[in-house]
């Protein structure tokens, strides 16, 4: 569940008015006010923009963690994928143990294993994927909690 108090806390921490934050994330002051008053919750797209603007993470704004710190980028992205079986296509990147090893790749090159061969992506794509993953985890946690709450009320 979206934590309106945490949105307000982070906005004030960065010494922003509702109007300034609204301009920064391309919303209206009224929308920010509604989020902070708990009258509405931001949709996914807005939440990801707020997370970036307030240098925090989605789990914190959704009340899934008490750690407000933004998650540091991981380079290379998902580099250690223990179950990967197809590393042979890039011999410079594999070791005798079959794990991914940093080669002389440019800094800022991210690698993801998405059920197939490794896929390279730039930093913007990696950040987007990371936010999507955060939202998916938050969705799963919320669904789990809702199921538990539903099961408890039926008992």
Our estimate of the beta-strand percent is under 5%
SSE topology string: HHHHHEEH
The count of strands amounts to 2
Helix content: 40-55%
Approximate shape? globular
Termini separation comes to 23 Å
Q: Reading side by side through the largest sheet, how are the strands ordered?
A: 1-2
Biggest β-sheet strands, sense, barrel: 2 strands, antiparallel
Helix/strand class: mainly alpha
Radius of gyration: 19 Å
In CATH, the topology of the domain at 4-72 and 124-154 is named 434 Repressor (Amino-terminal Domain)
Looking at CATH, the homologous superfamily of the domain at 4-72 and 124-154 is: lambda repressor-like DNA-binding domains
Structure overview:
The protein is mainly alpha-helical. The chain has a domain at 4-72 and 124-154: Orthogonal Bundle (434 Repressor (Amino-terminal Domain)). The chain has 6 helices and 2 strands, in the order αααααββα. It has a two-stranded antiparallel ribbon with strand order 1-2. α2 (18-24) crosses α3. It starts with a helix and ends with a helix.
